[in-house]
Amino acid sequence: MTPRLSVTARTAGPGVLPPLRPIPLGGTGPEDVVVDREGRVITGVADGRILRVRPRGPVHVEEIARTGGRPLGLEVLPDGRVLVCDAERGLLRVTPEADADAGSGSGSGSGSGGSVEVLTDRVAGEPLRFCSSVAAGADGTVYFTASSRRFGHQEWLGELMERTATGRLLRLPPGGGEPEVLLDGLDFANGVVLAEDESWVAVAETGAYRLTRLWLSGPRAGQRDTLVENLPGFPGSLSRGMDGTVWIALAGPRPRPLDWLRRAPGGVRRAAWRAVRPLPIRPRPATRVLGIGPGGRVRHDLRRRRAGYRMVTGVYEHDGMLILGSLLEKGIVVCELPGRA
Q1: Which domains does the chain have, with CATH numbers?
Q2: Over the stretch 105-120, which tens digit does the pLDDT of each residue have?
Q3: How many whole angstroms from its chain centre is CA 18?
Q4: Whole-prediction pTM value?
Q5: What does residue 62 show for φ and ψ, rounded to 5 degrees?
Q6: Is 340 helix (H, G, I), strand (E, B) or coil?
């Protein structure tokens, strides 16, 4: 079995994240970011809109659809359609507004020009709650996560504090059907990414500060191990770069009080959540992303303190740039990608 690798043991040293250029969107919380075949950034915001904008040049934001819920993780398909994990409506497929005339879906939903189709909103008869992140294989297989079976997306902090470990990694076969549970008992299942050869799929366990890997083919098919552990912050969305780098958005550093609380008895954790639930969330104004190789070795550790951009939950590499999204901010940011190690 591949040995577990610790970020703190393998990182040569941090690098400075280049200056961030903001792109305002007119909406809050672009949690994930992806890029389509035309080089345009696609993201979803808190009011349910799916937006499209070019990362360079004059800012022109297009609304391509509305999900009617809260879009989180995204994946662009080869035909231009977009998979959307909607925390309230389930796993969706969106045909962007400019392409809706192609009639590629029988969509149902509240699209704003673009069509919105529900692929699945239940797992084994149970409503799909807190659908979070998604990745698609070359054959059309869809891998996606549900972060919690108890808490909804608006109470994500409750999941971190109470540590219910009810997250799941799911698989939807090509052409649809019933989702299959691949991994259960995950500690706040979040980002998901496939290896370049699709021999494995990795999922971020935000509450455990690690990436858990499931082998899909080869002699280890069906086995589960740890791709990287002991991360220095909360891993959010994952994406794969041009050279196979797995990019990890770190939503915030590890707070010592929370580390202590998560080791406390369940009654203490529940009481603590009840106490802080009405309080506002104030994440630190720091920005950090990691890039690791397929074996878990750290290639990039990029950070910028007091960047003015908080709670990075999405990261995507494109055309020599890094594009970042946030659960809280009112736009995305882009920066140049430093030279690869």
Answers
A1: 12-276+283-336 (2.120.10.30)
A2: 333 344 456 899 999 9
A3: 22
A4: 0.89
A5: -110, 135
A6: coil
